[in-house]
Amino acid sequence: MYTDWEDLQKDCMSCTRCGLCETRTNLVFGVGVPDAEIVFIGEGPGEQEDLRGEPFVGRGGQLLDKYLDAIGLSRKSNIYIGNMVKCRPPQNRDPKPEEQDACIFWLREQIRLIRPKIIVCLGRISAQRIIDPDFRVTKQHGEFIEKNGVWMMGTFHPAALLRNPRQKPDALEDFLRLRDKIGEVCTHTTLA
Ligand code: URA
Ligand code: SF4
Questions:
Q1: Which of 7, 24, 125, 190 would give a disulfide with 43, using CB separation of 3.0 to 4.6 Å?
Q2: Does residue 71 lie in a domain region?
Q3: Mean pLDDT, the chain, whole residue set
């Protein structure tokens, strides 16, 4: 267990706990502010993320930033963004259960140190791992449940919205619900 964010990041950056370490260009630790009350969790780095070492910087990331901006959130000022696995799965395949098992150690430590009030899962992979193994995004998106004092919600993955733009209005509604929940439970998150 870590007590210091810098120590955690330093050790994580040289991680070889799973086979994905062999094919990464850059490990994608996460981005945002350490005192965030809201944490977003995606699936794993894609090509652009692997090249740049930052989560959600491709087309999906640009779309995510638009939804964040719509409710006054940004990775620069008031949230943290991480992924289920920190190294890119080859050809963007789903991360394997054993890779997620190995990597979730780091995410748990990050969440333990950040102590967010709200966790938003982006897509099936993180929602099934963190909220409910049977989570169905199409049915349960936007629903908040409280687990160990943290409010959790799953919504569409930005890549899914790019493939299926008809779901965009539903995604926006989820973000508006998130804004309401922030108003209820957050104490120092100021929405721009
Ligand atoms: N998709 C994800 O799930 N995470 C990223 O960081 C980029 C794309
Ligand atoms: Fe380590 Fe996670 Fe990268 Fe696997 S994906 S090597 S567990 S940081």
A1: 125
A2: yes
A3: 98
Per-residue pLDDT for 151 more than 90?
yes
Q: Is 40 in the pocket of ligand 1 (CB under 6 A)?
A: no
Ligand 1 binding pocket mutation candidate from 29, 48, 49 (most atoms within 8 A of CB): 49
Please tell me the distance between residue 83's alpha carbon and the centre of ligand 2 in angstroms.
11
Mean pLDDT of 8-18: 98
Question: Does 192 score more than 90 pLDDT?
Answer: no
Domain membership flag for residue 189 = no
Count of domains forming the chain: 1
Q: What is the CATH number of the domain that holds 73?
A: 3.40.470.10
Q: Is the beta carbon of 44 within 6 A of some atom in ligand 1? A: yes
Residue nearest ligand 2's atom 8 by CA? 86
Rounded distance between C-alpha atoms, residue 130 and residue 119, angstroms: 9
Question: How far is it, in rounded angstroms, from Cα 167 to Cα 85?
Answer: 25
Cβ–Cβ < 8 Å for 133, 148? no
Query: Which atom of ligand 1 lies at the shortest distance from residue 60's CA?
Result: 8
Share of the chain above pLDDT 90, in %: 99
